Amino acid sequence: MQKREHRFKVLVIGDLGVGKTSIIKRCVHQHFSSNYRATIGVDFALKVLHLEQDTIRLQLWDIAGQERFGNMTRVYYRDALGAFVVFDVTRSGTFEAVRKWKEDLDEKVRVSGGKRIAAVLLANKCDQEKDEAFAKHSGRMEEFCREQGFVGWFETSAKIFGGNASKHMHEPLGPPPPVGQSQGHL
């Protein structure tokens, strides 16, 4: 059977300093550095996944944490088929902001047929001590994800568990479409 290639745009969004860039760098380049500067606007990275009969090219759009408050997110979000919403388990305020990021996403981008794009919640910095407020809610994450419309959630750490985030990079997309089916129908 002939290999098929697919290209998907996946957003990586969340508050400033939650580790979006670190997750992307770890997943794409297998590299971690604690010396990242804040992303200004948007940055891009390409992650290639080889899944059975398919080659998946994920265009990872690293959206700056303060962008939700600007007018550019609609432009950045356009044509996305999936998203990771990232928060920092050591800062409960970043978890509280997840709802607003998801609302912004749902308001500004849809796939064909008007469906919301699939979004996965990433709880980052799990190598560090969890904020007390988040620790109280961690047992109800499945329920929270259902209520907010996330397809699931994962704990990760760009610092020590780089492979954990990397292995879930295709989660917002689901399986590749059958031959001849448009990418927009995921």
Automatic annotation (TrEMBL):
UniProt entry keywords in alphabetical sequence: GTP-binding, Lipoprotein, Membrane, Nucleotide-binding, Prenylation
Domain of life per record: Eukaryota
PROSITE patterns: RAB, RAS
Main location: membrane
GO biological process entries: endosome to lysosome transport; phagosome-lysosome fusion
Pfam families given in the database record: Ras
Annotated membrane topology: Lipid-anchor
Entries under InterPro entries matching the protein: P-loop_NTPase, Rab29/Rab38/Rab32, Small_GTP-bd, Small_GTPase
Segments for region (Disordered): 165-186
Subcellular location per the Swiss-Prot or TrEMBL entry: Endomembrane system; Membrane
Gene Ontology MF, one: GTP binding
Gene Ontology cellular component annotations, sorted alphabetically: late endosome; lysosome; membrane; phagocytic vesicle; trans-Golgi network
Family: Belongs to the small GTPase superfamily. Rab family.
Function: The small GTPases Rab are key regulators in vesicle trafficking.
Protein name, as recorded: Ras-related protein Rab
Organism of this sequence: Bagarius yarrelli (Goonch)
